[in-house]
Amino acid sequence: MLRYTLLRLLGAIPTLLLVIVLAFLLVHAAPGGPFDDERVLPPAILKNIEATYHLDESLPQQFWRYLSGVARGDFGPSYRYRDLTVSQLIGSAFPVSLRLGAMSMLLAVIVGVGAGIVAALRQNTMADRAIMTVAMTGISIPIFVVAPVLVLLFAVKLHWLPAGWSGNVGLARWMLPVVSLALPQIAYIARLTRASLIDVLGSDFVRTAKAQGLGTVAIVRFHALKPAMLPVLSFMGPAIAAVLTGSVVVEEVFGIPGLGQFFVRGALNRDYTLVLGIVIFYAALIIFLNLIVDILYGVIDPRIRYR
Amino acid sequence: MGASWANVRGNRALVVSAGILIVTAMLAVIGPLISPYDYLSTNFDALLRAPTMADMHLFGTDDLGRDLFVRTMLGIRVTLIVAIIASIVSLVIGVAYGATAGYFGGRVDAVMMRLVDTLYAMPFIFFVILLMVVFERNFLLIFVAIGAINWLDMARIVRGQTLSLREREFVDAARLTGVSSARIIARHIAPNLVGVVVVYVTLTIPQAILVESFLSFLGLGIQEPQTSLGALVDAGVNQLERASWTLLIPATLLAVILMCFNFLGDALRDLFDARQTR
Predict the structure, then answer these.
(1) Closest chain A C-alpha to B35 CA, distance in angstroms
(2) Is A275 exposed, middle or buried (0-12, 13-18, 19+ CB in 10 A)?
(3) Half-sphere exposure (Cβ direction) of A66: Cα atoms closer than 13 Å
(4) Residue A254 and residue B7: Cα distance in Å, rounded?
């Protein structure tokens, strides 16, 4: 188990390195320099600036400097937010995004699994069909449509919840962002749970449990749910990636000062180092979270042996 | 290609979604020709006009007084074209890569598929955004970038099919008569992949639409005065409180188009795949 974890951690390093190399080369392939503004600088000053940011070094030298910085958690200075480093920006924005993402995932798992169980137990009834139709719709509708429509409905028309972030406090301002981010994942998880629970409920050990006189609730709770959760667990990897991407949209729509908003601002402002840093940070995060999912998979499923 | 025309017609989800898509595409082509307005002209006497039959502003006007019916139709056109071109890019890369890996098998296959696995773990959408930053949101690049994301699934599926195809007699026969590997892949393997490929292209198109509208929504995709459904939704969000139709119309159309493609892909997969994979 420990050996497997260590091996997987080592295996993640080439992937991460590939991400860093690709992203770094892409940014350095950009035509023009980061300080080619409308304002034309005297050559001497431009030279000084380039020396400060080490832009006068050769590409391998710059890459080595950047890589050793990243290894220490230093993503260099931001080109637009001149007083801040990229690490400071990520450090201030990430906790907000993390909270948003974690709350959405939690909501998605609870509601999705719940709806999936109901649908599986009431297979081919009205309740099942209703849940599955809603789920199919939820999968097809992109998050940048869901979020504004929820704002229109609950904030603009009904005035139940605030539409924006700033000027509001407490749980109320989290409600719409978390729900919009969770909805597509709820849909996927409900479908997965239903399909795999129906599958498990047809297996021999469930029949045995039934023959021993166990009630439906006890069968689902003590026997069927755990094996039925395995496909849901494998879905967590893609779900995490989807929530990170969705978070960019949700933060834009609600004006939440998270990582996604900095990313989009950085992209629109051509803040190369910031965008580069966030891409690498996101990649590391996705790789790391996927690793945790893989390890959890082995913890839950005793049939998986690590060598 | 195991499905007969009768099977296709008997599948209601397939017929309905294909019908809606065809009608939408035709409207997107014909609509702007019939309307008295164009997508560019602003009219400051008709800002944010609600949808009305009276002066032919069927979908109303936006905050610059431009006719939203024509802009929406243009948006659908752009969205569909981007998606189709991106899918073709992903098809070409995916089929070439997957067929090569599957045909040679062994170590070549192992290395090539290991690369696919590595790429799967990458946050591609963020790379596309990085590309947009670096290359000034070049519109042609959007096609290529989206296609470059979507080829991974195609490569996996094609490889699986090729692994079984290469054991067939006609491939052996071709090899024995001295046909080169490249030619066998192009002339004997590829044509037999058509069924599977058609199905997965149908499922790739909605993914490509999603990426394009995501980028345009964030302002990183298509640039004004050109537009796409994602860009229209973005503009609608800004007018949310005063003119909700500017959001609801493109949002609904985008959702319907995505849903139809998903239903169509699912239905086609059920029809074709039933024989080929089970």
Answers:
(1) 27
(2) buried
(3) 26
(4) 47
pLDDT tens string B210-261: 888 888 888 888 887 888 898 899 888 888 888 888 888 999 999 999 989 8
B251: closest CA of chain A, how far (Å): 6
This prediction has a pTM of: 0.81
Chain B residue with the nearest C-alpha to that of A274? B130
Are the C-beta atoms of B36 and B56 separated by less than 8 Å?
Answer: yes
User: Between chains, do B218 and A267 touch, taking CB under 8 Å as contact?
Assistant: yes
* Tokens linked to A265: 């601002």
- State the nearest Cα–Cα gap between B211 and chain A, in angstroms: 10
Domains and CATH numbers, chain B: 20-277 (1.10.3720.10)
How far from chain centre, in Å, is Cα A59?
A: 32
The two three-digit tokens of residue A195, written as one number? 């399909």
Among candidate residues B77, B25, B125, B87, the one with its CA nearest the CA of residue B226? B77
ipTM above 0.90, yes or no: no
Chain B within 8 Å of A16 (Cβ-Cβ)? no
Query: Encoding tokens for residue A247?
Result: 């978070």
How far, in whole angstroms, is CA B140 from its chain's centroid? 15
Per DSSP, the residues of A8-35 read HHHHHHHHHHHHHHHHHHHHHTSSS-TT
Q: Considering only the beta carbons, identify the residue of B133, B217, B241 that sits closest to A249.
A: B217
Q: Which residue has the tokens 């992209």?
A: A267
Spell out the alpha helix ranges (H) of A29-125. 43-52, 59-71, 86-121
